[in-house]
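Attaching the record inline, Q. Sequence:
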Amino acid sequence: MATPHINAADDAFAATCLLPGDPLRAKYIAENFLTDSQCVTDVRNMLGFTGFYQGHRVSVMGTGMGMPSCAIYATELVRHYGVQRLVRVGSCGAVQHALKLNDLVIANSASTDSNMNRNQFGGYDFAACASPRLVQQFLNATDAQRRDSVVGQVFSTDSFYDGGDALIPMLQRMGVLAVEMEAAGLYGVASRYQVQALTVLTVSDHILTGEQLSSEARQTSFNEMIALTLATLHPSSPATTK
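Structure, as predicted:
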């Protein structure tokens, strides 16, 4: 049944759903990485698709920018459509000198300046963590393909601009790898509903040096990340049902 933000049929989504922020990225993934894909929802132009990757049924849906928007779609996908694995695929800004442009970051946890998780955790600090099994799957896949990756903590912020002069030095001091805007909220939703979640990011810009990927380089990096993500989630025999 349709929700306030998703107008898909009851069985429209697969058990695994990739979550890029940009709905046009969702369309791009569906058209270039999935077969027999169909648009299953288009409320407010937040596009969602379901198709097949090497025989495996897979969905992909945009979430918009920021934790509130991401949490709305993640919650409705889990509660109303039975999605079991939520994988954010996006980009981040590096805050450690050891990271380089195009590096692949696997966010095993996410700190945040948002009160979203605290509000549903009785005012206490909540450990927003990825699902260990998915983290291990990605580590195994990157090792097997000899693809460098960095696993660690990211910082999910509510503010794209003007985070404060003290923020970046503090993140560096605490070993945070990069800044993004959704992971902590996604992990909170996954924990609440006991489903799996992971955030996989490419470094698109470096906050310390001011370096940025060109549009062409961003697309190449994005393609590599999506290909690796799909191969990691579905490495074995085909399964065409949910």
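Residues 237-242 have pLDDT under 50 and may be disordered. The two ends are 17 Å apart (CA to CA).

More tomorrow.
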